[in-house]
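Protocol step 4 of 6: record predicted structures for both targets in the notebook before any analysis. Target 1:
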Amino acid sequence: MRSTGRIVDMRAHHANRLHSSMPVQRAVADASFAYDTAVVGLGYVGLPTALALHDSGLRVLGLDVSEARIADIRAGRADLLAADRQRLASALTTGPDDGSFVLTSEAGRLPEAETVLVCVPTPIDEHLAPDLTALRAACRTAVEHAVPGQTLVLTSTTYVGCTRDLLVGPLRERGFEVGVDIFVAFAPERIDPGNDRHVQQQVPRVVGGVTSECVKRTAALLEHCAGSVHAVSSVEAAEMTKLYENTFRAVNISMANEFADISRGLGLDITEVITAAATKPYGFMPFFPGPGVGGHCIPCDPHYLLWQLRGDRVSSPLIETAMTLVAGRPTKVVQRAVEVLAERETCIVGARVLIRGVAYKPGVADVRESPALEIIERLRRAGARVWFTDELVDTVRVAGVELTSVVEPGSTDWDLVIVHTVHPGADVSWLSAVPAVLDTTYRLGELTHRSVL
């Protein structure tokens, strides 16, 4: 470990100088930073990234504006894979003492890090337009505290041109020359929450820089937590790569849902059909139907592209149709629930309905954009009495009403159970005694009395 006393003083000197009106020095500063990297935003992307970098031997400064989030991390309450939980325990044991892993809410410490990774959420608002509030704030903070010799890397999914708008332009306004005394790149995150089959240390990362030196410096860092690094010609190419990845998924999920509807009409098992098609070793990738899509990526990312295209008066009918169909899937779940109840001569009004799992995908405690929330709200509007059960989610708030997870779902007589999410290892044997089950996962073929969406 390097001595940090002189380093901190040097960083503070740079910060004070750059916050004044004096011009930026045209030479790369002494590379003796207290931390190899600072990770801005310690959510589902930032925290695993910080842990992977620390596990590789780097000195990491974790920054989050939420003191509550930092407290949860320190208490080990973060939603992580088992391997990352072990890394967190190790980092919290030794990191604060040797200075190799430090958590803070003080943005003024960013000048202590050689590289700054921006890993904040990029959701959409109620009008399906990008909500850049967190991203603008994080980038503004990174720029305000930037010092010569640093590399700033944006990892949050966003529109094409955002890196130049929020980092490159503001840095030039401060007097920096990007590629000479400061370096900027875009390297979209590739983390699959709850899935230990695709750990980030084995997944390639795409990097696009303002200059070749920007790419080189960013790649040198990300090689510590990625299977490999694939460089592209520009930050814009990297931004579009991420949009293409998740739009591809949205379009194919929409098609899988449509084929599921067609197959039910023809009396076919869509899961059997997709599994059979997946035996083809080329030209096919399996996507499975479900109750809709949730989380941080698929329901949001394509709208960043659509929003930008609308501003340029460019039409994209395939993507627009796919996103419309994806958004309408929870409504179809409720319509199907009404049909299943009617087949048993039960009215939706007053029916006792249980949602099995409200997390947006198996293995996570995340309910962001979860279709289950809209399903619950629409069922309640239709007059149903609705409960949920989920081992990983204690409470959810829907339309101002807080619901608490049912601990023993098998002890109640339900008119209908809608299977939305089944976590790995979850016991769903009690479903065999439920008179009506709507399986929106298409995975419970052993339940002979189930209905599918």
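Target 2:
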Amino acid sequence: MRLDDHPTVRRAREKAVAAQPAPLLSAEWLKELALRHGAADAGLVEVSRPAIADQLDYIRDVFPQTKTLLAICARMNREPVRSPTRSVANQEFHTVYDDVNHIARAIVTELSDLGIPACNAVAAFPMEAQAPGRTWTVAHKPIAVEAGLGKMGVHRSVIHPKHGSFILLDTILIGAEVEAYDQPLDYNPCLGCKLCVAACPVGALKPDESFDFLTCFTHNYRDFLGNFNDFVDAVVESKDMNTYRKRFSDQETTSLWQSLSFKPGYKAAYCLAVCPAGEDVINPFLEDRPGYVEKVVKPFQDKEETLYVLPGSDAEGYARNRYPHKDIKRVKRAVQTRSVASFLAQLPLAFQRGRAKGLNTTYHWTFTGAEEIEVTIRIADRKLQVTPGHHGDPDVRITADAKTWTRVINRQYSMINALVLRKIRVKGDMKLFRAFGRCFPG
């Protein structure tokens, strides 16, 4: 039988002839579809919107035909998230992650049955285990903001105008255009109360609303995949169980096993738990602010727990001073650096503002060998600026073989040996060079 005569081919071609050009989809119908399948809210963004241009390549990687983004959210129950017993809170997170993925799949199924191409971008973390680097595909937060589902709060999560911080996000990628799109909210539901700052046990959130990513990653995500490398190192390097237990207690080993065997356990997420923003959430805070702090915030502050910090980090000093009743454990940096390019990309995430106090220094870096890169790094007023190329008059010049520098960063080669053998050369005040290192502990 010729292909043209096959019954399936003939029926498909008959349908193609009968099909009409698809009209623009109804925005109201799409959002109603999302609500009908269980979403708490939904909004639409055109894929060409300039505000999400930096996400376009990642969106195309998942679903190249994408023309419209349907942002949805599912609501979490507040009291489980506020429980100091983290297994209770984590169960709520993971249950709602499952819920929002099921909602998205149901939406995609219905759209596909109607001949509308669509793909769920998946709500989970981590999505793509490629650390160091981006550990997710489609970034739901900026899309949700553009879709009018909320604005970013001090705690770096989206706050919904009604449901507050107690939501989880997902995005459906649709291969069709829509007649109308949503716009961001004209106000931020965040109250600026800084209760998230007060509740963070390791000081990752700052009073000036800045954020220390590495500190949050080190503690809150201790039982996630990123820490697995540290566990493997401990197993390989330990000569016996006593040596291993100096790095991982029996309780920590069990906690890591549970997290990897079932679903990852957040150590904190207190910033979300204490947030009073949102129309359905705010009343107890407005009616009795001291009572709200006593009931919601204090249990996290008073909780006896282990806080995980990098040696010499801002978090270590903060935790010891702020929470003397909590155990402090120094841990190793879990993620390896693959290249000079990734080292430079990680600098803003690892920068410790407290350790940069008093520095007003410009560094010219020149990397040679496998990666030929010139970069200017400026540290002043406890702020970091990384600029490609050499600019201005440097206080310190560093020339380093790229492979050697990467090995030093990964603790595979001695900095002293690299300096002695002139694989790393420093021209300028060595105290300023050492001060640079103190700004990036671990």
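Step 5 preliminary note on target 2. The radius of gyration is 25 Å. The longest strand covers residues 360-368.
Proceed to step 6 after PI sign-off.
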